[in-house]
Amino acid sequence: MPVPVTIAAALQLLLAASFVVIALIAHRYGDAAQHAAEAEAVRQGHPAGVLAAHRVRFAETTTEMLLPLAIGVVIGVLAAVNLAGVQAGRIATWVLAPVLVVAGGLVTATQVFAARFTAAVFRKSTTASGIDAYAIVDAASRTYPAILRPLVLVRFALTTLGTLAVVILLALPAANAHFG
Fold first, then answer.
1. Which of 86, 107, 115, 175, by CA, is between 20 and 30 Å from 36?
2. What is the spatial distance between Cα 55 and Cα 121, in angstroms, rounded to a whole number?
3. Where exactly are the structural domains of the chain?
4. 170 near 37, Cβ under 8 Å?
């Protein structure tokens, strides 16, 4: 097995795992995070529904969890077919990579920079002036396992730089014989 293909598949499997694990953590702890954020908003003197009114949510429904799980499965399948030397897998990886880098990068960026995005929402509001978005996000974050934040950062790096590396690795001459 060529080293570039092995490294590319390993990066894909790590990315797939990060999508699955983060989705499961978000689903498991999201309600507690939502309650903590709402309690923080009330503690700051804002009405209980201020987060909902501004579509600030930390809870994730089962349906919402399906998208990151599906993304994880697709990336995992691509890793497997790339390891098996299936040319269609390599081509599918190249086709889906730009979508993953752009869409996945934007979605994961909102998680990496959650406090900034939340603060921007409240800055634009006339009904939530003075709310401390950083405290809201901090209250929600404290309910998640400590491993979540590093996982989100790793997923962001794998979604962007890792995916670009996979494309390059699968295009190297050493990989061609594996897919030929």
1. 107
2. 9
3. 3-177
4. no
